[in-house]
Automatic annotation (TrEMBL):
Keyword Nucleus in record: yes
Keyword hit for DNA-binding: yes
Protein name: Histone H2B
Organism, scientific name: Ceratopteris richardii (Triangle waterfern)
InterPro entries hit by this protein: H2A/H2B/H3 (IPR007125), Histone-fold (IPR009072), Histone_H2B (IPR000558), HISTONE_H2B_site (IPR055333)
Cellular location(s): Chromosome; Nucleus
Amino acid sequence: MAHKAKNSTPSATTEAEQQAQKGIKAVKKPVMKQVHPHTNISSKAMRNMNSFINDIFEKLAQEDARRAHYNKKPTITSREIQTIVRLILPGDLAKHAVSEGTKP
């Protein structure tokens, strides 16, 4: 008879992750409406976009952690974040992300 380990739910997320996801969801639709006001998005497409954004953030966080460990510092600078964005995101997407991130 197989025994399940307690708290073995693979989809369990921390409270901080849940708050971050709520924040991301709250931003996406208004931004899309601002960019394309007459365009709608299905729930499935929104889930796919959410997955894409979460994957990108995860890659950025992993590279951030590697750099902080390598440099033996607990924090990184905004310039290092820009470098990480340029490493992770392709071409014009990185350029636009850095541009938007540095706006006042």
